[in-house]
Amino acid sequence: MKDLVLNLNKGLLIDTNLLILLITGYYDKSYIKKFKRTAKYSIEDFENLSKIVDGFNNIVTTPHILAEVSNLCINRKGPDDSNNTGFENFIKVLIDTIYQLKEVYLEKNSILILDYFDYLGVTDSAIIEIARKNKYNVITDDAGVFRMLSKFKIPVININHLREI
Fold first, then answer.
1. Do residues 163 and 45 make contact, with C-beta atoms less than 8 angstroms apart?
2. Is residue 4 part of a domain?
3. Total-model pTM
4. Total domains, the chain
């Protein structure tokens, strides 16, 4: 962690699980432990992530991350299941948050030929390649993505390592 040097002038690419954590925390920090997609995180994890995100003017995503976030969040129930108001409010926060992100696209054929595609898949391979090409910083909780980005000397934070500090 000591050798990590983030470039605040470049964008920050947020991996899927952490984007869901960010959206959930923006919606209601107390819901982090109640939502199955974020239950493994703490409010402190959200606050650490939020502080990092706040340091960047350019927050980046990919169509692959957006598809995963949508698929994982759209079927969740809001805290007020009787009238579904909680779900509607959550979706509003989701839309407001992702609307502000810069979307960077990488053509599928460019992803399929990557050496690491066969064990990391489409989304993670796209994250790595987009970060490499654009010199973006990345924040993730995925050990495989973290190792590959570190190998390529791309500034990367594994949020799990922040707990160790």
1. yes
2. no
3. 0.88
4. 1
